[in-house]
Amino acid sequence: MLIGVPKEIKNHEYRIGLSPAAVREYIANGHQVMVENNGGTAIGFTNEDYIQAGASIVETPDEIFAKAEMIVKVKEPQPNECKMLREGQILYTYLHLAPDPTQTKLLAEAGVTAIAYETVTDNRNGLPLLAPMSEVAGRMSIQAGAHHLEKAHGGSGTLLGGVPGVAPAEVLVIGGGVVGINAAKMAIGMGADVTILDRSLPRLRELDDIFAGRVKTIYSTVDAIDHYSKTADLVIGAVLIPGAAAPKLLTREHLKNMKPGSVVVDVAIDQGGCFETSKATTHQDPTYVVEDVVHYCVANMPGGVARTSTIALNNATLPYGIMLANKGIEAMRNNKNLLDGLNMHKGKITYKAVHDDLGQELALDYIDPLQALDL
Ligand SMILES: NC(=O)C1=CN([C@@H]2O[C@H](COP(=O)(O)OP(=O)(O)OC[C@H]3O[C@@H](n4cnc5c(N)ncnc54)[C@H](O)[C@@H]3O)[C@@H](O)[C@H]2O)C=CC1
Ligand SMILES: CC(=O)C(=O)O
Ligand SMILES: [Mg+2]
């Protein structure tokens, strides 16, 4: 199969869909790979590295989108990229469709077969292609929070770990999945006082075992959010209902009761955000203030550490990508985990939670993903 890897064009997004090492694997499996000129240069993956791995370098994204049978990316296609996609072509990338009617409509018009990294599953109820970026974003959320708690960056002037004689900051993590546990690890490492809310009791039990008394685990209710947000210096939004728009758990009313200069980091912003007052921001201009609370809502946080993130992402996406390249869309017929990634095919929505959020608004039909393969 002919694989195309365009350069990412989102604000300060330096990740790339395939690393040179991943390209070598595709080539070893008998495929051809085109990489856009200087697609990885910003993170030290030069054209020469890609050529040595067996790829050809292509000058323009137009040529890649026109020729490739499968496009491998990182972030959701931007409107001008959506317009270059077509029926019969596979798009393999993060999509986050539920909060994004514009992209969903454009992908439907293109008729492309769109596989979303964030909904591919494994056999242990995990999301293996989301997990590595959630690890990165969870860890970064505490770095970002600590930075913005500094006075000069808009915060209250609070040090996460405190010092002997001064209490540490309170960190509230809402959602104890992959982002949540990684945030908690970093916050504990910096000496903060950490509380994790989740609505899964089995998950809270696991966290309790892992952290052995070093964090408070609390069942997530409106009451718990009311109570713990009041005293929190830093709140991390880390909930997920796979494929669906995030529930709004922290409201403007909560902010009014928080300490001025507190910081909220809404990692779930790529699914629309789990705070009422969240709106997506960029690495260039990451924060804004509402009710005296600093909001950090960068939708592509791992792009900030693009080299680490590209390697981590490729470790996870490679085996599924090779399956797709080897067998085309038929790869999904015998692999339920990969089929779970199918969000759109030939103008129809194939992922239930996306259809629940957008189907009516966009007048788009839902079709069972397995049946969709027969269209
Ligand atoms: N902004 C960015 O750059 C990035 C954003 N993300 C996003 O971060 C979010 C979290 O991802 P993961 O940790 O991988 O998901 P996950 O599925 O591992 O964890 C989500 C957790 O939220 C919990 N949850 C669901 N509803 C809840 C509620 N009402 N209260 C408390 N907990 C609740 C679930 O039980 C689960 O434990 C996703 O939206 C993901 O797309 C991930 C990576 C990068
Ligand atoms: C998951 C996601 O949104 C990202 O890595 O940018
Ligand atoms: Mg206030």
What features would you highlight for this structure?
alpha/beta; single chain; nucleotide-binding; binds pyruvic acid; 375 residues; Rossmann fold; binds magnesium ion; globular; oxidoreductase; nucleotide binding; binds 1,4-dihydronicotinamide adenine dinucleotide; EC 1.4.1.1
What does this structure look like?
With 375 residues, this protein is α/β, with parallel strands linked by helices. It has two domains: 2-120 and 306-372, Rossmann fold; 133-299, NAD(P)-binding Rossmann-like Domain (Rossmann fold, 3-Layer(aba) Sandwich). 36% of the residues lie in helices and 16% in strands. The protein contains 14 helices and 15 strands. The model has no long low-confidence stretch (mean pLDDT 97).
**Morphology call:** globular
Order of helices and strands: EHEHEHEHEHEHEHEHEHEHEEEHHEEHH
Q: Looking across the biggest beta sheet, what order are the strands in?
A: 3-2-1-4-5-6-14-15
Mean pLDDT: 97
Overall strand count: 15
Radius of gyration: 21 Å
> How much of the residues is beta strand, in percent?
15-25%
In short:
One of its GO terms (molecular function) is nucleotide binding. The chain has 375 residues and is an alpha/beta fold.
Furnish the topology, listing elements before pairings.
Layout: E1 2-5, H1 20-28, E2 32-36, H2 47-53, E3 56-58, H3 61-67, E4 70-72, H4 79-82, E5 90-93, H5 101-110, E6 113-116, H6 131-149, E7 170-174, H7 178-189, E8 193-198, H8 201-211, E9 216-219, H9 222-231, E10 234-237, H10 252-256, E11 263-266, E12 287-290, E13 293-296, H11 306-327, H12 336-339, E14 342-345, E15 348-349, H13 352-362, H14 369-372
Parallel strand pairs: 1-2, 1-4, 2-3, 4-5, 5-6, 7-8, 7-10, 8-9, 10-11, 11-13
Antiparallel strand pairs: 6-14, 12-13, 14-15
Helix pairs in contact: 1-2, 6-7, 6-11
Bound molecules: 1,4-dihydronicotinamide adenine dinucleotide (NAI), pyruvic acid and magnesium ion.
Pyruvic acid is lined by residues 75, 94, 130, 133, 270, 300, 302.
